[in-house]
Amino acid sequence: MIILTKENILSYIKEHVPSLQLKEPVKVSMIGEGDLGEDVEGDGYCNYVFRVSDADGYSYIVKQSTEHLKRRGRALTPTRNRFEYEIMELRAKIVPQYVPALYLGDPENNVFIMEDVSNLKLIRFQMNKNHLFPELAKQGAQYLAATHFYTSEFYLPTEEYRKLLAHFMNAELRVVMEDGIFLHIFGSDHYDAACGPEFEEYCKSIRFDPNLEFQRYKLRHLFMSKSETLIHGDFHTSNIFADDTHLKVIDMEYTFGAPFSYDLGFIIANIISQACSAAFRPFDTETHRKNYVAYLISLIEMLYTYYIQFFFEYWEKDAKLEYKITNGYKESLALDILRECFGFAACVNFSRICGDMDTADFDCIKDNELRTKAKFASATIDKMLFEKWDSYNDIKEVIEDIINMIC
Description:
407 residues; alpha+beta; Phosphorylase Kinase, domain 1; Aminoglycoside 3'-phosphotransferase, Chain: A, domain 2; five-stranded antiparallel β-sheet; three-stranded antiparallel β-sheet; 10 strands; 52% helix
């Protein structure tokens, strides 16, 4: 197996993809080198990712999976790269407008080559600069609803659906989420020391509350046992490139069978963090701050609303007849997705903010006192969602609760 480097990558491309005629001078860089910033893909923790661009402005991403997490050292099979390429091929057939173009899949060397979409921007870092994305809720929801519905048993023949789940079992990366989101970070004794002992004690009060612990394990079991579709698995704001009119999704190696609601909860968790950060980080005027916080809260509502709208458009067009004619099925499914997605949002968000890992949403606040207040606010919303996720009946109820916590 060849190990790609900046020195040998051009010869690799010439040998494996001669159709990519690169005009000299060609620039090769490794994504994630140097300081963390907008050029860092979320999968930089797991893989080696190169950008190759030529004199005519053509640019490609070359991704090679490794046997370990690059920044955490955990052993993982490098063959996950093949599954990521395969799921990108499948999703490109469903929503080609949201998936980077693919040029090569090389399972022997755990490499694939795809379109470089960095003409767009990672939305996490743009949100840190208070940028609005007018189409994000609609486009993000459509990507999720389409890829979820068309890899579910509501649409696929039952045997094909079961084979798809078996093929993308992805046991090793499942564990990263099953334990990392629901167990290990919760069980960690390492908290953000810069936030002081009060923040640590508050996080521990959430972590060790018997009722909240029950809710966490209940959600973990739901995540592990309810295989409704092939999820993205890591659908956060550093895995979405966008501008005012376009959107592309990357980093699909965490694909496996799970609830419809999980991806939606994952992205909502990120928006909750952004809203809490915006409530405390600097703005040119207080009106600008209030408007941006309001935009982020409305984004949470619109993500769910558009998801349900698109999902049931596909349902009416392509769902199996036995589901279509069952009274109340759609309404029950929409309610399950509503409740579960906010339970998962609490798990995802709290696992990110209580520990000592980098959290760009909050790290952009340079004043440590304000940053601490923002993280307190986010943890408080998580606590509320843990307590109430399975009692909500309407998205408006959730939004009202979030508004009361932030505004």
